[in-house]
Predict the structure.
Amino acid sequence: MTRPDDHTDRRRRLIKLAREIVPIDVMSKGRLTLGFGLGVDTSGELSKFDEVIDPRVRGEMLDESVPVLAALLAGETVQHRGAHVVVDDVLLGPRSPQGDRPLYWFAARGDAHKSLRRASCYEGVSPDEMDAGRYDQLIETVVAERSGLDGFDIALSTTPGEPVADYPRETATWAIHAWPALPDTDAVFEIVTTGPPD
């Protein structure tokens, strides 16, 4: 599906990703939400594996790949020949139990207008590096692109057990606990069973 001789992201080939998504979506009875982002090279997760590092190129790859993946998940016969992705007459099944495809959420900084515009074309955003000013920019950009927030999720990353900041309370729809890589399982269980703090 992708050209093996060019510099495409080998970690997330579309056919592999689509074949992983479909059974999870089916087993979850249509509760799967897919998260997308450009990725970062903070710990060498890109450069140490000879992946594309330039965020502009990665953005182009993401913009081209996402609708192709959507067509595959919708059960369409896909024919696509682009700058980064080639799909030659592929039909994938079964279809998503959610209809055309699972929901798409995109990672974005509150002041990264291109990333926010990308997210606004789909169903949600998971913003990072947030403060009140950046959050206002996020809302302004999304509302301008979508003419409102209906059908759009904003999933804020929070410190486990800590209340969500006051500024997003009227518009954020999800709080995602940012657990460390190896969390204390008792602490996780306690926070999950107790529910969100007031």
